[in-house]
Each structure stands twice: as structure tokens, then as C-alpha cells.
Amino acid sequence: MKTMIMKRAFTSCFTSNTLLPFPRLGTNNITATTTITLLRLHSLSQSPTCPNPNHIPNHLTKLQQLLLEKSRVGFDKPDDALQVFDKMLRMKPLPRVIDFNQLLAALVKMKHYSVAVSVFSKMCSFTIPVNVVTYSTVINCCCHLKRVDYGFTLLAAIFKRGFVPNVVTYTTLLRGLISQDKFLEAELLFKNLLKHNQVEPNAVIFNTIINGQCKTGNTSQAMMLLRYMEKKGCMPDVVTYSTIIDSLSKDRLVDDALGLLAEMSDKGIRPNVITYSSLIQGLCNLNRWDDITQLLKDMDKHKISPDKHTYSILVDAHARDGKVKDAEYLIELMIQRGQNPNVVTYSALMDGYCLRGELDKAFAVLRTMRNKGILPNTQTYTILISGYCKKMKVDTAITLLEEMPLKGLTPTVETYGTILDGLFRTRRLDEAHKFYRKMLNQGLRLDIVICSTLLHGLCLNGLVVEAMSLFHKMESCGLVPHISIYNILIHGLFKDGKVDKARDLFHNLLLKGLQPDLKTYNIMIHGFCQEGLLEEAYKILLEMEEHNCLPNEVTYNTLIRGCFKNKMYHGGCVLIDEMVAHGFKADASTASMLFDLLQVKEQDPALLALQKKFMP
DNA sequence: CTAGGGTTAG
């Protein structure tokens, strides 16, 4: 009870009213035994095909063989495993713990987590001996079922029965916490485990925490933890390096990632296909094709074959870059090399066609998938729906949306977001409202992204009042508005002529400690310029410099046009000089405005000065 | 040697 963990465990124990038998989780449609399975099991257990029957002293070994075979090949369905389980229950003497554990492991392999949990529950009610391995396996199932709380209940049970949780048990729980976005709790638990010497940490537990740090955007801390484990004599392995390399690649710090690749190779840790795939993805995002070619050559040299992930990354990169033909070729290539493309691969290709607006081709990909027996999933549909919406073909998009449930697919907020965006952009407000209600009725929760879509759509259609009320609703729901949400609203308010409200909202975000971004400032400058409030616009320019948010080409052009529009020719001139000094150029719109001004005949000295300055 | 935990694709 000295440690955090113990406290935690026992708290969980008391908060959950059932310790044992284990609460049933989710649905498990375990049907009655089938004759066929029974017959197969029967023939297997008496099998003359056993390599050497004389070496099988009793039925336990046969069972072991069966289990080994099954955990290698996998049960065809959870029922099979349950058959084996029932058979095991009737054996005398009872099979060893290890055999039961193997059975659970086989279920985990099939991802039938809730079935595994109910088997465990039965084991408990039949008082079949279990050990810490059994518990760890079941904790893992709970974590996969997004019930880390039950995982901790089980940890309490481990203590209660006098078992000692080990590094695997804790690693499983840490991973469970991290997968539930509870990284801080995971980190705290980990620190306490080390502090109180509750575990002898190994690479896997470190890797789990490192992965959590990477997932929460703390790659530099992950790097520090890597150095720490080296210092403690726990050598990082290929997973440690791959995890950080992947994170660096996603942070666009591919050169640092390449540095780590060199480092691991120096230390004799061999990179694998995952390491290379992560790097290739990072390079793809930066369009560094030459480096990609080099890495593929390295892989070839080290006899590491690209797998379907590697190919899918490449297909996706080419497709997003508009090179759909190359993407098609890559798919051909991967098939030739025995890596079968799957739904992810084809969805990436389809996305490429959608981006190019080639919807017929995108739809053809869907047909190809069907011909190959690859089932399109929710994301496939969302990509296609988004493609149709972008082309303003919202009716086709709606048809696809309505087709989804017929295929057993459930639209996500993302799917609805795409449809709603399409409806707003085609000004079909009643339907937008209808689908919004439908989305909520399906139990889908609003998130920041869908809110941005809605706010943008409402503002686009001049419904700023409705947008503001949704904004307040968001805040009361505990959704923390991101700066881009403010950008949408401020822009909408200005467009609607509500300068005071726009100004208020801007000050509001400052009060909340939110940092305006370049877009915020540009929107403010644009809004003030439109209203002839040039001084306020200029003050924003000074403000952004103070806040280390340097103005860009858009900032200057907006302000310069604002000056000209308001006949402040001298100010415009000064700003043009300043802009040029910063290495920016007048954009098309400013240039054409300037060109028009050169034709104006007026006795304004500032205008004459301007004309003199810019007259060819 | 024998059961449980870790890294990659939209």
C-alpha cells in the first residue's frame, strides 16, 4: 500500500462493485457447439497424423499440440476455442495453467477480447488455477476493449490473491492508459514503479512510455528517455529507435530521423522494414524522392523487402502528389512482388483521383476493390463522398452516404462533416440542418473539427448569429476552441459588418491566453481595412511584430490595398517600401490596384508622388 | 526450449 500503484489498484477495486466473477464486457455471440467442430476436435485428439504417437504420454500433450497448432494457425472462430475450453474443463486431471493461458492467448491473437474475458470469467467461477500470466493476458484484453479501469480492478485482484505483478503486467496497463489518452497518468505510474523498484524495467516498458511521449508530441522527451535507458544499462532496441524515428519523421524532422538511423546502425541495431517505412513516409511528406530512392536501395542491400505498408505509403504519396499513374504502377509492382494491396492501398489511390477531381476513375477503384473481394470501409466511402462534395455533386455524395448502412458501415463525424460542408457550400441549408440532426441522432458527438466545418458553413451563409450560438454551445460542452475557430468567427463577424463583435472576440481570445496566428492577424487587418479603420489595422501590424508573428506577403498586401482604398497614398508607399525590404512582392490584386491608380487624375500630392514613384 | 506486454500505411 506504500506505492501509488497499490493505492490506485485498491481504489479501482472499491469503485468497481464486482471483482469476481469478472464483469461481462461487450457482446459475445458464442453459439452452441457444432457437430462439425466436435468431430474435428475428436479426430484431432486421436489423430494418427501425430508425428510420433509413442512420444505422447497422455492427453495433455495432445491438447498442447492442438493448442500449439491452433495458436499458430488460429482458430477459425471463437467457437472453436470455446470447444477446446469445454473439453479442457472436463479433463482429469485438469490441464495446466499454461494450457489455459495458451488458449486465452489464441483468442487474443484473433482479437476476440471479450470472448477471452468471458473465458477467464468462467475459469474463475470453476476455480481453475490462474497465475499472473493469465491476469496479464486478460488485462491486455480489457485495455483493447477500452476498459483500462477493469484492468486496474484485475491488478487489485492480483494483489489480493498474493501474486506479484511483473513488468509485463505493468507494461500492459501503461499501454492501456496511453491508448485511452491518459498519458500523464501512465507517466506518473511509470515513474512511481521505478522509484519504488516495483519492476525491473526492460526495453519494452521503456518503449511503451517512449511511444506515449511520441504520441503526445513530446519527441524530444522521448529522445531523452532513450538516453536515460542507455545510461541505466537498458539497451534500446530496434523498436525504441523505430518509434522515435517515426515520430521525428511525422514532425518533419526527417534529417534527425536519418541521424538516428545512422546511430542505430553504428550500434549494431539492425533497422527493419518498419524503421524504413517510417523514414520513407517522412521523406514522402517532404517530396524528397531522391532520398526515398536511396533508402529503397539500402533496404535492398540489407535484404529487407518492402511490405504492404511500405508500398501503401508510396502509393499514397504519389496519389496525393497527383501522380496517379505512378500510384497505379506501384500497386501493380506490389502485386508482382507478392504484397497484396488492401483497402488502405486502394483508398489511397482513390483519394488521389478524388483530389484531381477524376471521380469516374475514383469510382472505378471502388469497382476494382469489389472485383478483388476487398471490402471498402468507412474511410473509403468518406474519401469518395468528400470527392463528390468538392465537385459540388452533393446528391451523389448523399446517395453514397445512404448506401453505407446497407454495407454494414457506420458513417463517422468525418463523413457527415464532408456532407455538411458540401451542403453549406451549395447553400442547401435545410438539408444541412437535416443531416446535422441525423448525425446527432446517431449518437455522434461534436468535435472541434466538425464544429469548424459547421461554423465555417454558417458564416459562409451569413448565419453569424447561429455560428456564435454554436460557439457558445461548444464552450459549455467543454470543447476548447482552437485559434482557427476564432479565425472563422472573426472573419464571419467582419463580413457581416459586426466590427465591435469581431474586435471583442479578438480581445477575448487574448484574454484566454490563446496565441493569435498569422491568419488571425491578417483577418483583423483585412476587416479593419474594409471598414476604413486604417489606424487599427496598422496597430495590428505592430502588435504582430511585438508577438513575434512576422507579417507575410498577405499581411502587407492587405494593408497596402487598405491604404489605397482609403486614399492614404503616402502610407501605402511607405508600406510598399517596407514590404520590398522584407523580400515580398505586390500580389496580382495590389498590382492591378496600383496600375489603376496611375491612371487617376487628381490633385492629391500624395497620389502624384505615388504616380511619380511607380510610373514606368 | 515451453504462456502474457512494445514500433509502420488512409
From TrEMBL:
Keyword entries, A-Z: Repeat
Repeat as UniProt keyword: yes
Describe where the PPR repeats fall, as residue ranges on this chain: 131-165, 166-201, 202-236, 237-271, 272-306, 307-341, 342-376, 377-411, 412-446, 447-481, 482-516, 517-551, 552-586
Q: Where is the signal peptide?
A: none
Family as reported in the entry's similarity comment = Belongs to the PPR family. P subfamily.
Which protein are we looking at? Pentacotripeptide-repeat region of PRORP domain-containing protein
Organism of origin is Daucus carota subsp. sativus (Carrot)
